[in-house]
Design goal:
The complex is a heterodimer of chains A (110) and B (120).
Chain A lengths: L8 E4 L5 E6 L11 E5 L6 E4 L13 E6 L2 E6 L8 E9 L4 E4 L3 E5 L1
Parallel strand pairs in A: 1-9
Antiparallel strand pairs in A: 2-6, 3-4, 3-7, 5-6, 7-8, 7-9
Chain B lengths: L2 E5 L3 E3 L4 E8 L7 E7 L6 E7 L4 E3 L7 E6 L4 E6 L8 E8 L8 E4 L3 E6 L1
Parallel strand pairs in B: 2-11
Antiparallel strand pairs in B: 1-3, 3-8, 4-5, 4-9, 5-6, 7-8, 9-10, 9-11
The chains are: A mainly beta (110), B mainly beta (120).
Amino acid sequence: QSVLTQPPSASGTPGQRVTISCSGSNSNFGSNYAHWYQHLPGTAPKLLIYRNNQRPSRVPDRFSGSKSDTSASLVISGLRSEDEADYYCAAWDDILRGYVFGTGTKVTVL
Amino acid sequence: QVQLQESGPGLVKSSETLSLTCTVSGGSISNFYWSWIRQPAGKGLEWIGRIYTSGTTNYNPSLKSRVTMSVDASKNEFSLKLSSVTAADTAVYYCARDGPFTGDGGPEYWGQGTQVTVSS
């Protein structure tokens, strides 16, 4: 089981704001970056947010990330149908000496 | 733009060794972290481990006793071996490379994934 805990699902109507939380610990978020990946079924996961709150240029600015102490959050502002996907947080863990992914959150656009 | 492609048997017998190769194109294999990640059907992503081009490895503690990773710079490819497989190892396996963004060796570029099924 993952050391990073996310809600299994989140949903909203088009245009709404959706927030996904990711709870970790001192050994991962407490001392390392949080990253977020978007995963559409049958495709390769894509890096969505890196180093807590940075976006690759190809990622729309309606996606934003933050980190505080041992937790991280992803916000999708102005939800669109193409945002329907699975979202994973991730971080390096100093105790495990490895990368850990969150449990994943399925976002549904109603 | 770097591209990664996984290859290997799609069906492996229980108790045998799963072997996958990731071929890298559009860039050098040198000076990067190369990772393997898997996803069982209906479940989340699981990091298997990574290897730096120098040969330094980090493995998921839960899989460490069964995992071996290697890099062949002459072929621009890296490999995964997972021994003594069981049905629990059935998954889509992804290879990935780090990049300038994550800053901690985390995966940025991913292959499309390959399905591996363990049969009894």
